[in-house]
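Example S7 (structure tokens).
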């Protein structure tokens, strides 16, 4: 599911209600309003310090229609769409307005979107430093095979025993099947 990433326009109802730096997502417009879910990390959770993680949390709530007070139907004119978030693959395939997003988030767009790695098979030590800077998140571990998701949406499968890694495009059917396997195990 593709969601819009919003930033409130100055002096709007949305700007008055939502904490600065919150991840705000919405899908669809009805009667001149957009139902948005947002996460501002008001309580200072360690796992929500990055804008990306706040976006991920807000998107998860929207997709599951999670009951929360961190949602509101804002007038469309209160919001500026700055990016798109793929809620299923958990990445930003497109940023439309880098500058506005960076000002609102207080982070560089490259940190929010995450750098990507060259796709295909690699020696693990050849991608090591770049891998660590791509914000890897462990998805599953089976013996010597560790599978990670990167902020950019890529999936990385590392075989520690062989020293080989596979970097998979976010929209590749193999990446989607890996995500489905991870979901089925939860």
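Recovered sequence:
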């Amino acid at each position: 599911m593709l969601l819009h990433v919003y930033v409130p326009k100055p002096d709007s109802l949305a700007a008055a209600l939502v904490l600065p730096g919150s991840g705000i997502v919405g899908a669809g417009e009805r009667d001149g309003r957009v139902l948005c879910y947002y996460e501002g990390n008001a309580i200072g959770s360690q796992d929500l310090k990055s804008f990306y993680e706040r976006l991920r949390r807000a998107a998860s709530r929207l997709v599951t229609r999670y009951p929360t007070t961190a949602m509101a139907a804002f007038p469309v004119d209160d919001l500026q769409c700055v990016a798109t978030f793929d809620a299923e693959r958990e990445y930003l395939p497109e940023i439309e307005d880098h500058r506005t997003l960076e000002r609102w988030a207080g982070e560089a767009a490259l940190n929010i979107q995450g750098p990507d790695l060259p796709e295909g098979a690699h020696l693990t030590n050849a991608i090591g430093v770049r891998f660590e800077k791509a914000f890897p998140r462990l998805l599953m571990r089976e013996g010597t095979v560790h599978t990670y998701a990167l902020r950019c949406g890529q999936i990385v499968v590392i075989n520690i025993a062989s020293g080989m890694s596979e970097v998979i495009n976010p929209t590749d059917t193999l990446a989607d099947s890996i995500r489905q396997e991870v979901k089925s195990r939860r």
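Notes on this example. The first helix runs from residue 13 to 17.
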